[in-house]
Amino acid sequence: xxxxxxxxxxxxxxxxxxxxxxNQLIQFYKYYELLTEWNKFMNLTAIIEMDEVITKHFVDSxxxxxxxxxxxxxxxxxxxxxxxxxFPGIPLKIAxxxxxxxxxxxxxxxxxxxxxxxKQLGLNDIQANHGRAEDMGREPLHREKYDxxxxxxxxxxxTLSEYCMPFVKVGGAFVxxxxxKIEEELNAAKHAVFLLGGKVESVEAFLLPGTDAERSLVTIxxxxxxxxxYPRKAGLPTKEPLK
Length: 243
Known about the structure:
There is one protein chain. By secondary structure, this protein is an alpha/beta fold. It has one domain: Rossmann fold (3-Layer(aba) Sandwich), CATH 3.40.50.150. 39% of the residues lie in helices and 22% in strands. The protein has helices at 3-15, 22-39, 50-62, 89-95, 108-121, 133-136, 157-164, 183-195, 236-239; strands at 77-81, 100-105, 126-130, 146-151, 168-179, 198-207, 214-222. The protein has a seven-stranded mixed beta sheet, with helices on both faces. Helix 5 (108-121) links the parallel strand 2 and strand 3. Helix 1 (3-15) runs parallel beside helix 3, helix 2 (22-39) packs antiparallel against helix 5 and helix 7 (157-164) packs parallel to helix 8 (183-195). The longest helix has 18 residues, at 22-39. It is globular, with a radius of gyration of 17 Å.
C-alpha cells in the first residue's frame, strides 16, 4: 500500500467520520490493484486513476452511512443489485465487516471477478450471485429477505424501484445512489414506489469530497409487501417504467 493511497483515503474518510484499521486499508488497496489489473482485459470501470477510484468508487460507496447512521452497529442483511465491479457492496463489507452482503450482477464474467476479490481479500458473509433482478426478486430465497437493498446502477428511479423493492422485507429500506439533480425523477417515481409497497422517507444530498459531483441517497421505506405482480418479466421495467 502506498503512502499516497493511505493519506488520500484516510483524509476523505474523515469527512464521513469513518476510521479504518490498517488491515482494512490494505484490503482496499488490494481491491484497487485487482480492479485495475482485471480492467485491462474486461470492462469493469472507466475510472482507474487511483485518486478517482478512492473518491468516486470507495468513498462514494461508503457514503451510505449518511443515510443509514447505524450501519456500523448492526448486522444488516444487504443486497447490492447490479453491483458491477462490486460497488457499493464490497467497500461496505470491508469497512463494516458485520454486514451480511449479497452481490448480484447479470454478467457472469463480472461475478467471476467479484468471487476473486472476495477470495483474495479473505471476506466472509458475502456472496456474489449471477442473475437478473427480475428473476431473483421472485425467488423465495431472496424475496423480501433483506433489511436493505442498495444500488448504484444507472436506471430511472421507477425502473430501479421495481427491480429492487421486491428484495426488501417490510420495515426495511431500498437506498439507491443517484447523481445530479433528482427532484423531477423523484416526483415521477412516487406512484411507482407506492405501488411497490414503499414510501420515500428522506433524501440525503451531498457533494463527493473535493469534487463538484452531486450525489443523493434516497431512503425508500418498505411499508407493505410487494404485490406478486412485481417485478414484471425481463425487460419490461426498463421499457415501460411504472407510472
